[in-house]
Amino acid sequence: MYYEKIGGFEVKAFFDSDKGQLVHKVTYRRKLLKTRVLGDRLSQSYIGHKLIIADLASVLSWGNIAMTLLDRKVQPPENKPILHSLFVSMLTTYWKCFADTKGRHGVQLNRKLVPKQYIVVHDELRRMRHNLAAHSGDDPFENGYVLYVEDVDGKSRFEPFVLPVHWKAYGADKKMIKNITELSKQLIDVLEGKQEKLLKRIMDSVDK
Q: SS3 for 121?
């Protein structure tokens, strides 16, 4: 459910699964106000980018949590899977902003929007998302095999046995976490600047 209170205004909205749509209500000092949904191109672009900004804000939050964990002097074993989960969430959510996602009216980010100083980071995140988070690709982010261990010739100190050996990259190092959070912050700043101008255009275009 979505809820926001601004002064005397209250906005409530929830997704009605039976109707397959958002249902909303806006009140001012508890009195219901008349509203209408704007379905024009500008409004769809605005809300699409609003959803993208929300995703990038989630990436920032996860990054801050990850950095807090990484700053600890002692790293308990249980931190590894937690950091891995945070990093995978950051990777997949960041790249969701560059995908054609249903509900965003065709709005998605383009590589051209990425600041030049972060292009290398952006491309590395794409590689890691493809090979680490989505599915195994050409890069060895995980590997393993089974060893057969036996005593040396002429010895009988122990019975032969098999030993599984495996390795998995967790990817959540400080440098990468810092890069993805800084890049997300840059993109949020760029988008919010565009959103302010777009909202003014929407208000000017609405039939009063």
A: helix
